[in-house]
Amino acid sequence: EETKTEAASSAEETTAPKPERAKIKIAYHPHITGVGGILNAIDNGYFEDENLEVELVQFTSGATELAAMASGDIDIGYLGVGAHVFAPQGQCAILTLDSTDLSGEIMVKADSGIQSMKDLKGKNVAISAGTTSELVLSMALKLNDMDKTDVNMINMDASGKVTAFMTGQIDAISIEAPYTDQIRKEMGEDKVVTISGSKDFLPDAVFTNSWVTTNKFLEKNEDVVVRFLKAWLKGTQDRYNNMEETVQKVADYINTDYDTAYLVVEKTNWLSDKELKKLAEDGTMLTWYDTIKNMFLDAGLLDPQYDVPPEDYVKLQYLEQAMQEIGVE
């Protein structure tokens, strides 16, 4: 009789009720930082394990993605460096760091006669407002004791400004990977010169890539957010362990070649789940988010009224719960 009861109870344990099925719309960006971990999580069944159905929607700008989130069209999404300016303003809640970016560059044509930031005075420089490109240009101007009014900033989307630069419609471009590599590949390495970039601001600066949601979504879906993070952590660890395989997967998904997709890898600081856990637990992650907020303030991209503590908009408790549930050491 006893064995029968034991068998019944162990059967109950193995068929523990799955969490309720939920569908989430995820905003991704077309490169390995912006979709690699997600594709691994889909392919390896991690979302299925959490009973989550996912729909992926592509964005190339954080500002348009956050607008889609605000209207409820997107639930969770990837955010590149520049769009972090919206977090202290309450437009999104940061759930986790993905990686850090080192790829921002200000490029000019080799035959333009422009050799330094000072030479940009009065010139047309293309940026995408609210993205890494605006931040990098603003910081480079400040580093060289220049004002934003010293250059003519022209706001264009990424593909538009790449075309405008390559066809000579603008004097300079502030842009990040993978577009920097596209420009070099199509124009020729010797035809372009980088006069400043993200690396000029290290080690004082940190350029964060993150996954975010809205406070509104979070209020009613804490459980779904934790389940998303569990699947994402596993997929991201797979990216860390199998970078080449993930690059190929991303290349196929976004319809590009392996070499082009791989170029982002060398311009990114990748983190394992173990490293993420340490950064979350020892306070480094919050410090980094505070640092980037201060970079926006210094560059004049964030109104001083939004100089709030990172705890106001970085919600690491869900990441910590997800890590605990999947046993990240």
List the SSEs and their pairings.
Blueprint: H1 2-14, E1 22-28, H2 32-43, H3 46-49, E2 52-58, H4 62-70, E3 76-79, E4 93-101, E5 105-109, E6 124-127, H5 132-143, E7 152-155, H6 158-166, E8 172-175, H7 179-187, E9 192-197, E10 208-213, H8 215-220, H9 222-241, H10 243-254, H11 258-262, E11 268-270, H12 273-281, H13 284-298, H14 317-326
Parallel strand pairs: 1-2, 1-3, 6-7, 6-8
Antiparallel strand pairs: 3-10, 4-10, 4-11, 5-8, 5-9
Helix pairs in contact: 2-9, 2-10, 6-7, 9-10, 9-14
The strand count comes to: 11
Q: How many distinct helices?
A: 14
Order of helices and strands: HEHHEHEEEEHEHEHEEHHHHEHHH
Distance between the termini: 40 Å
Shape: globular
Structural class: alpha/beta
**How are the strands of the biggest sheet laid out side by side?**
2-1-3-10-4-11
Q: Give the fraction of residues assigned to helices.
A: 40-55%
Q: Low-confidence parts, pLDDT < 50 over ≥5 residues?
A: 1-13
Overall average pLDDT: 93
Task: Give a short account of the largest sheet.
Answer: 6 strands, mixed
Short description:
The chain has 329 residues and is of the alpha/beta class. The protein has helices at residues 2-14, 32-43, 46-49, 62-70, 132-143, 158-166, 179-187, 215-220, 222-241, 243-254, 258-262, 273-281, 284-298, 317-326, and strands spanning 22-28, 52-58, 76-79, 93-101, 105-109, 124-127, 152-155, 172-175, 192-197, 208-213, 268-270.
Write structural notes for this entry.
The protein has helices at residues 2-14, 32-43, 46-49, 62-70, 132-143, 158-166, 179-187, 215-220, 222-241, 243-254, 258-262, 273-281, 284-298, 317-326, and strands at residues 22-28, 52-58, 76-79, 93-101, 105-109, 124-127, 152-155, 172-175, 192-197, 208-213, 268-270. It is an alpha/beta fold and 329 residues long. The chain has a six-stranded mixed beta sheet with strand order 2-1-3-10-4-11, sandwiched between helices. Strands 7-6-8-5-9 form a five-stranded mixed beta sheet, sandwiched between helices. Helix 2 (32-43) packs across helix 9 (222-241) and helix 6 runs parallel beside helix 7. The two termini are 40 Å apart. The relative contact order is 0.18.
